[in-house]
Amino acid sequence: MQARIDAAFRPVDLAVGGPGHAFAFCGKHKVEKCEECNLDFTSLNRISKILVTNPTLRCPPPPNVVQQKLSQAVTNTKDEGNNLYKLNKHKEALAKYNLAASIAAQRPPWEGSAVLREELSTLVSNRSTTLFELGDYLGALADAETVIAIRRNWPKGHFRKAKALVGIGQLEEAQEAILLGLQFEPNNAVNLPSRTIPVSESPYTGIKRLHDRVKKARRSTGKRRI
Predict the structure, then answer these.
(1) HSE on the CB side for 51, CA within 13 Å?
(2) Dist. CA 84–CA 25, nearest whole Å
(3) CB within 10 Å: which end of the chain, N or C, has fewer?
(4) Chain segment 155-173, per-residue pLDDT in tens
C-alpha cells in the first residue's frame, strides 16, 4: 500500500492563506481551483473551514455521527414549506424549500452521504411540484431530473418528472416516466393533481386529464406559463 502511495505521489507547488493560514491555493496563480495547473483545493479548504470555525472540534467524528441540530433545522424549514404549500402560498413555500436545501448542503463531508441524499431529494422533489404549481414547468422538470439523479430508485422523482412533462405538452414521455417509476414501486397509486390513478388503470388517462387542466389554466391567464 505504501509503495502505491509513493508511486502516485507528486509534489505540488501551493500557497497558504486565509484565516489562520489554514487554506491552500495554487502556488503560481493563487487560486483555489486552477485549471492550468490541474489543482483543486476546494474539498480540502471546505474541511479546513469547518475545523477553523469549530475550534472545539479536535478531529472529525465517525461517519455515522449526524448533526442533530442541523437535521432538525432542515426538517423544521421543510415543514414550514409544506404548510405554506397546503395554503397555496407557493412562492413562500418555494423560498422555504430553497432555504432548507441550503441548510442541508452545509453538512460536513465526513458525514454519511445517504443522509444528505435523502434530505436533498425530498426537498428538490417538493420544490419541483411547487414550481409546477407556479407554472414553471421547465424548472419543475429540471428539479425532477435532479431527484432521479440523486435517488433513481425512488418513484416520486419519476412521477414529478411526469407532471412536468405534462406541463410542457410531452404526454408520451410523461407516460414513460410514470411506467418507469412504477417499476420501482409496482403497488403505488400514482397521484396526479387531476386524480389518483389506480395501478390497474393505464396512466395515460390521468395524464390526459392533467394536461387538459394545464391547458385550461393557460387559456384563463391568456399566456403560456413556463
Answers:
(1) 16
(2) 44
(3) N
(4) 889 989 988 998 888 888 8
pTM metric for this prediction: 0.67
Which amino acid does the sequence have at 32? E
- State the Cα torsion 189-76-131-208 to the nearest 10°: 10
SS3 197: strand
Q: Cβ contacts of residue 20 below 8 Å, gap of 6+?
A: 52
Percent of the chain with pLDDT over 90: 35
**Separation of alpha carbons 147 and 155, rounded Å:** 10
Residue 117 CB contacts under 8 Å (≥ 6 apart), including other chains: 150, 151
b/e burial code for range 52-90 (CB count within 10 A of at least 16 → b):
eeeeeeeeeeeeeeeeeebeebbeebbebbeebbeeeeb
Helix 203-221 to helix 171-184 angle (10° resolution) is 130
d(CA 109, CA 205): 45
In three-state form (DSSP H/G/I as H, E/B as E, the rest C), the secondary structure along 155-174 is: HHHHHHHHHHHHHCCCHHHH
| Spatial distance between the Cα atoms of 175 and 162, rounded to a whole number of angstroms | 7
Please, are residues 70 and 103 in contact by the beta-carbon 8 Å criterion? yes
